[in-house]
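Entry 14. Structure prediction run on the chain below.
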Amino acid sequence: MQPYRILLSDDHIHAREGIREILEEYEDFLIVGEAVNGEEALSLAEELMPDIILMDIQMPVMDGLEATKRIKMKLPYIKVVMITVSDDIKDLFDALKKGAQGYLLKNIQPEAWYEYLKAFALDEVPMSKEIAYQILKEFPQEKKEVKEEKTPLSSRELEVLQLVAKGFSNKEISETLFISEHTVKSHLKNILSKLHLANRVQLTYYAFQQKLI
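Output returned:
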């Protein structure tokens, strides 16, 4: 299997060096480029077509939030993972709303990076309970604008969707519904396809908007 191609965007050279050292330990990941600000990240994303961008939030010229928004508009299939020293729920929620797949705190243990990034690459990272709660808090302000639709999902797919929106991981969903993780992944793939959505954040929005939970 080809390694996942990584673009690293961070204005601090020591942070980039540290992340590079961590990822070079694993054959699953290959750093193909480094950017020092959001504008350069956008340019390199178009040039290098990475699988994943590790995006710092606070950067000069163009910050990571704006860069993520622009990259996802032009290249929606690239996964963007925010890397930050802050666990400020507002920053992380803003990043997810702009299309980021998830986030990593820079101060987590080095050995945890591989596990998290592999899960991000496979789109298996569960929605955190805090993020799900933040969506729930914002939902009442948006629900007047949302027209409820008849869902194209089967009853089993609805069960999976509801658990995703509650922050359950694939493993937790499989244990709750007494099905294999492979079957959970298959259901998630079908759900995303039927709803024309890209990730768990958007699925959670959909579940709240359609009053499924």
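The chain has ten helices and five strands.
Filed with the rest of this week's runs.
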